[in-house]
Design goal:
heterotrimer, B: alpha/beta, Rossmann fold, C: eight-stranded mixed β-sheet, four-stranded antiparallel β-sheet, 16 strands, 34% helix
Chain lengths: 153, 271, 394
């Protein structure tokens, strides 16, 4: 059995993190499983966690009135889910739903926020990693907005 | 330079706005050899002529297929053709995908929308000689799940162990269980060895721009990336001037270009 | 290649009064003569039968956006510079049928390549710049990769009778492109018109066997050394009159260095994208095709029509053109002409005839635009060098 710490240490997201920081993070981590169709979090709820998906697929959805429920993006094994825990007011903006049976490591955001305030080095390391993910997602969203396959003319 | 008559053997509606024409030589024409990535000029009697890439198997030239989208006057007229109707064919024209040069490498195919059509020819050819290649990965992005081309074939390919197929759509309703996100988001974790991979890319120009960036970020050298360009074409043989892309005539020197040879043009506006 | 070289060996002389005999010889041999004539206040190339139709005693004045014909005090037939038309009108007509398709009963059709045999032309009065332009279009339409039959059938039978330039206009810069004012190659016959107070005659250089053939029965005499010298003086005089220059050193690289130049926006403020320059250019070859049918829909034809990279829909794909801005379209034209043409066909796409300058309604001058790019590099260099000095001498 691989320990949580090994799993986290081997994950690209935590690559290069100092051992002491990794230990702190492991202290805030636990395992979770979600059934197909189960909501991991819902729009408007307090955002106190983020997730490292180990297996399965998660859809970020938004209910758009008469149009129905639209999937904004899907996340797969290896992806990081959720950054609303990092920025006030700490509320989820979308629904996250497992579209397949999903296993994930849950990281306690409240706990990490406190640790980051205490240790800005840790805070910086985490923010740096989230900034990269947020940038990638923003770029992907921009490309999505371009609607490149649409018929013109 | 005059079109040869070919008979519509079958017209298959792929999605709400795309269809595949299967053609066979009519009296006065013969089966011809073609390479994956090449195109033909297709002529609808009295309406006009347009370039459309070949989407069938080069190792079986008896079956000639073109998949296109109903967008202009000619493609709309084509969409109304029926089995037995005759259309004009000139070609094949243009440069092929480097299917032979990819021997011994991983091959990553990145297709966007209707861009899958010319890449299907390459896939057929590679699958016909599967042992020559290491991993073959198809990353395919469309606008919505309803825009996915060649559904049945993709399903069949997905079930194969020697081909990785990843499909993603830009937008979907919650019933869709597949990927949602742009096709470039499939690149970082697709299973191929970037240092020993040949990438074949076809789709809207802007999609290709972002794809090439992502492939390079992953470590694929620009000299191993191939793109298929699209330009206005009237002649197909490099004399009408319409398809110029810097010094290149896309119809003759392309449509398939090795990325590093056109990078300086590709990154410029309105070339 | 020197363009002011001496008149070639063993030339002939023909009195101007006997030029009609050369025309008669051409007609008898089945040629349709196309020669300069005055039409709508311009000197253009048209089918003619008689030397009386030549622009004797007529010349022109050309500046940027200006073209005017004027009376001369003498009866010189070829003392003018090229007008709005070029020989491509005949070798590569502005509107040409390529093939015809006919319904054959059911749903099928048969396609027949253009059956009409083009005329066998004799071009009289081809300027050296235009000879060079024809040679350039030969590379476009009769390349190793592709042979255009519609061009080839006209071109191969055409007889080219050049008349060396004795009157360069204000926009001529053939000396810079190495294409004039003295024809070096590519002609069947090359004439030099000599006219002084006493005599009016042509010195004729032979280019090919076909050229020699049409002289049979024409009362030519071997040219005297004095006549050759006189012809030589005409050419030297013409060369001196060419004042416009375009520095072609490193021209391709210069153009490629300036693909993103802000200068194109400056040109775009003046350019109307009217496409006049491409229509009058003797080398521009871009065309589109048109499909037409009869009313019953039983016969369809494919026509090709001159097109221009200045037209907004020239680069149209999927609902929008690639080159939307005026600046990108001007850049395309001039970069093609002076740079990418060299990559495509191994020669410059410009022969220095000056037509694009004369017929541009706002007088955009290709040589000025090249000079502007060169100046922008010089001023950049001037801006950076003092800085380097200041580093060297703190």
């Amino acid at each position: 059995m691989r320990t949580l710490e090994t799993v986290l240490a081997e994950h690209p997201f935590f690559q290069g993190l100092e051992k002491r920081h990794l230990e702190v993070i492991t202290g805030c981590a636990s395992n979770a499983t979600f059934d197909e169709g189960q909501f991991i979090f819902r729009e408007g709820e307090e955002a106190n966690h983020f997730y490292l998906i180990r297996q399965g697929r998660v859809a970020l959805e938004v209910h758009a009135g008469g149009v129905g429920t639209i999937t904004i993006q899907t996340l797969d094994a290896g992806d990081i889910l959720g950054w609303s825990w990092l920025v006030p007011p700490y509320r989820w903006h979308f629904d996250a739903r497992a579209v397949e049976p999903t296993r994930a490591i849950v990281l306690d955001g409240e706990c990490l926020r406190r640790k980051c305030e205490d240790d800005h080095d840790l805070g910086y390391e985490l923010l740096k990693r989230f900034a990269e993910i947020i940038t990638q997602r923003l770029q992907a969203t921009r490309l999505q907005l371009l609607d490149v396959y649409a018929t013109r003319g | 330079m005059v079109p040869r008559p070919f008979r519509v053997q079958q017209i298959r509606h792929e999605t709400h706005d795309t269809f595949t024409l299967e053609l066979e030589p009519a009296k006065g024409s013969e089966v011809f050899l073609f390479k994956a990535g090449q195109f033909n000029m297709l002529y609808v009697f009295g309406v006009g002529e347009i370039p459309i890439s070949i989407s069938s198997d080069p190792t079986n030239p008896r079956v000639l297929m073109h998949t296109t989208r109903e967008v202009g006057v000619v493609t709309k007229a084509m969409g109304k053709l029926r089995r037995g109707d005759v259309i004009g064919v000139r070609g094949p024209y243009g440069s092929p995908w480097p299917v032979e040069q990819a021997d011994g490498s991983d091959v990553v195919i990145v297709a966007g929308g209707i861009g899958l059509a010319p890449l299907r020819s390459a896939l057929y050819q590679m699958l016909a000689h599967r042992q020559r290649y290491e991993k073959i990965v198809l990353l395919y992005g469309t606008r919505t799940p309803n825009d996915i081309l060649y559904r049945r074939e993709l399903q069949r390919w997905r079930a194969q162990f020697d081909l990785e197929v990843h499909i993603t759509v830009d937008r979907a309703m919650s019933g869709w269980r597949g990927n949602v996100g742009v096709v470039t988001s499939l690149i970082p974790r697709a299973p191929f060895d970037a240092r020993n991979a040949v990438a074949l890319v076809c789709g809207p120009e802007i999609m290709m721009r972002f794809t090439v960036l992502e492939l390079q970020r992953r470590g694929v050298p620009p000299s191993n990336i191939y793109i298929s360009m699209e330009r206005n074409m009237k002649c197909g043989v490099g004399v009408c001037g319409h398809c110029q892309f810097g010094p290149c005539f896309v119809c003759r020197d392309g449509p398939v270009f090795r990325y590093d040879t056109v990078q300086h043009l590709f990154e410029r506006r309105e070339i | 290649m020197s363009q002011s070289g001496a008149v070639s060996e063993n030339p002939y002389a023909l009195p101007a009064t006997d030029l009609q005999k050369l025309f008669d010889s051409l007609t008898q041999r089945g040629y349709q003569i196309i020669a300069p004539t005055v039409l709508d206040d311009a000197i253009v190339y048209e089918p003619v039968e008689s030397v009386n139709e030549l622009p004797a005693g007529v010349t022109d004045e050309q500046r940027a956006a200006v073209y005017r014909i004027k009376r001369r005090s003498d009866k010189a037939m070829f003392r003018w510079a090229v007008g709005p038309r070029s020989w491509k009108h005949y070798l590569y007509p502005p509107h040409q049928r390529l093939w015809e398709a006919r319904r054959n009963g059911g749903s099928g059709f048969d396609v027949v390549a253009e059956p009409e045999e083009p005329p066998v032309y004799a071009f009289v009065g081809v300027r050296p710049c235009d000879l060079a332009a024809i040679a350039i279009q030969d590379r476009v339409f009769l390349s190793e990769q592709y042979r255009d039959e519609n061009y080839g059938r006209r071109r191969e039978k055409a007889l080219l009778i050049a008349v060396n330039c004795s009157h360069p206009a204000g926009n001529c810069f053939c000396a810079s492109t190495g294409t004039g004012p003295h024809a070096q190659t590519g002609y069947d016959l090359a004439l030099t018109e000599v006219l002084d107070s006493k005599q009016h005659y042509f010195v004729i250089e032979l280019g090919t066997e076909r050229g020699a053939e049409v002289l049979e029965g024409v009362p030519v005499q071997p040219a005297s050394p004095e006549q050759c010298e006189a012809a030589q003086r005409v050419l030297e005089n013409a060369a001196r009159q060419i004042t416009k220059r375009m520095d072609t050193t490193d021209l391709k690289e210069l153009m490629y260095r300036h693909l993103d130049s802000p200068h194109w926006d400056d040109v775009a403020k003046r350019c109307l994208t009217c496409s006049n320059c491409t229509m009058v250019c003797p080398t521009c070859f871009c065309h589109t095709v048109e499909d037409v049918t009869n009313l019953q829909g039983t016969v369809a034809e494919r026509w090709r029509k001159w097109d221009s990279c200045f037209h907004i829909d020239f680069s149209y794909i999927h609902g929008s053109p690639v080159r939307v801005s005026e600046s990108s379209r001007y850049r395309q034209w001039i970069t093609h002409k002076l740079a990418s043409w060299q990559d495509q066909f191994g020669v410059l796409g410009c022969v220095g005839c000056g037509r694009c300058i004369t017929w541009c309604p706002v007088g955009i001058d290709i040589t000025d635009e090249v000079n502007a790019l060169r100046r922008s590099e010089e001023s950049k260099a001037a801006l950076t060098s003092p800085k380097e000095e200041s580093h060297a001498n703190p």
